[in-house]
Predict the structure of Lactate dehydrogenase-like 2-hydroxyacid dehydrogenase.
Amino acid sequence: DPVLLISGAAFTDEERARLEASMPFAFVSGPPDMAALEEGTRKSIRAIAFKGHHALTGAEMDLFPSLGVIANYGVGYDAIDIAAATARGIKVTNTPDVLNDDVADLAVAMLIAQCRNMVAGDALVRSGRWSAGESFPLNRQMSGSTVGIVGLGRIGREIANRLAAFKCEIHYTSRSEKETPGWTYHSSPVEMAKAVDVLVVALVGGKETEGHVSRQVIDALGPRGIVINISRGSTIDEGALLDALEEGRIAGAGLDVFLNEPKVDPRFLKLDNVHLQPHQGSGSVETRRRMAKLQLANIEAFLAGEPLQTPVN
Ligand code: 8YV
């Protein structure tokens, strides 16, 4: 009987093959399909390997009376109702740290792409217009920018370290002041936005950070302001960001995440002051392999009665 439920259409063939080889399994593409599993299958499931951003609720957990662990593929577990899992004695694990470098790299890459207008530069060369004599407009230096990191967690710190190497002045907000190499702490995101040109959002997702980068914060950034987001679309008031971008009240944005992704608000697509990526922050072959291995290691530890590697609750 299946012990493992693999839940997520987003698993790659390689990831599924590794999970499937590990123990008897069943597969569903996502939470909405869980109720359709036969009762016998549901009763034998002890672990869920989860990949996706659909809500996984207490009602779904109740479909599996022997469920003991939900292992999330990803560091962000905002899709999973953690309180519901805890109330049922179900452990949740995630995949922290192994993706910090990739996500931080992408944040810096989007900032450079935005400042140096790299997508338009590529288009100029490809189109033959450069060869035909058209010149490329001067753009904006990235090194030395004044940057505010919103959320100095594991990923935020990697971004700050990188930008410090680019001679940027680092400011940050977080729940409390942290030990840093002299970076400037702000308790208020509005006050920080007034002091910096670039905001990089590296918050956790979920209810408590919803709209944290508010209309007020965006308005405080000013006309040189650039917003970079590699966290969750929910952390920014997306309507307020779009208004500011459309009206030229800020300079631009580099976004890897969106409110209703993968359905991106069409207003973004009309803007030439944004750089858009398909939520690929952790998406290198090397990192995704580490995430998949950590997910499986958590499931195997649980089933062996051993301590979990990266527990959430
Ligand atoms: C996704 C992510 O998990 O780790 C996270 O929180 O957002 C990503 O790494 C990945 O896209 C799979 O859904």
